[in-house]
Design brief:
Blueprint (H helix, E strand, L loop, with lengths): L1 H11 L6 E6 L6 H9 L5 E5 L1 H10 L9 E4 L2 E4 L1 H12 L7 H23 L18 H28 L13 H15 L16 H11 L2 H9 L6 H9 L1
Parallel strand pairs: 1-2
Antiparallel strand pairs: 1-3, 3-4
Helix pairs in contact: 2-4, 2-7, 5-6, 5-7, 7-8, 8-10
Length: about 250
């Protein structure tokens, strides 16, 4: 209709929002958001803060849910990783009505995996306290060992096998078919985190990914994307040998 055309025309002439992404100087949770924005060529301020700065922000009440990442959009602060990722996905076309349900299911599966990893991140049962930021209900050394063994030998291999099957059913090469989406970037970051050790350090073994060639090829495909390659160059990120092998096998 004429009204719809006028609305679209008005939206197309609006200036882009001013985006400030605030997170630690780590890849971890905020990296898929950064990659989505960079892939979509949307300008944003990549604010990287220390743990002490996060603690000060939490004490000052500037973190809506007591944690990072947060995103400021034209001066208004928003929180929660998944919500921010979906927002930037919509802005870049990497999260659409056509792929939302399937994309959400993969994102939820990845979130379940991160929950499984939480005890190795914080050495605690419940992660960080929302007010103090301190780890809560600390694990004993024996519990840490038991969790590590179970994650490496059973839980994560089984989880990744389910993701491998989902990818095999997608028509590929991406989780949502022929086009890259935010869940592919989330998987890429998790895969790199496991291979390079920034997810849980040496306690999480890269062998948890064995037997899942499609997942490794997908991570290699994302890694080889020109914009992702440029981002990695700009930040001096290396290529894990496992991805090099996957790249050479395609």
């Amino acid at each position: 209709t004429a009204l719809l055309r006028r609305t679209r025309a008005r939206i197309s002439t609006m200036p882009p929002p001013n985006l400030r992404l605030v997170y630690l100087d780590q890849r971890m949770l905020a990296e898929p958001i950064r990659l989505t924005l960079f892939l979509g060529k949307i300008e944003f301020e990549d604010i990287r803060v220390s743990y002490d700065q996060v603690k000060s922000m939490r004490a000052a009440g500037t973190l809506p849910h007591g944690q990072v990442p947060i995103m400021e959009i034209d001066g208004t602060t928003y929180s929660q990783t998944a919500a921010i990722l979906r927002y930037v996905g919509r802005q870049t076309g990497l999260y659409t009505e056509n792929n939302a349900l399937l994309c959400d299911s993969i994102e939820a599966a990845l979130a379940d995996i991160r929950i499984c990893m939480r005890p190795l991140w914080y050495d605690s049962v419940l992660g960080r306290h929302p007010v103090t930021g301190d780890p809560t209900v600390l694990l004993t050394e024996d519990q840490k060992t038991q969790i590590q063994i179970l994650l490496n030998n059973e839980i994560l291999p089984a989880r990744f096998s389910k993701l491998e099957h989902a990818l095999s059913q997608s028509g590929g090469p991406y989780f949502c078919g022929s086009s890259i989406s935010i869940c592919d970037l989330s998987w890429y970051n998790m895969c790199i985190g496991i291979l390079e050790g920034f997810y849980c350090g040496p306690r999480l073994k890269p062998t948890v990914l064995q037997g899942n060639p499609r997942l490794l090829k997908l991570a290699a495909l994302v890694h080889n994307h020109p914009r992702i390659h440029l981002w990695n160059q700009q930040h001096n990120y290396s290529t894990p040998p496992e991805l090099l092998r996957a790249l050479n096998s395609t």
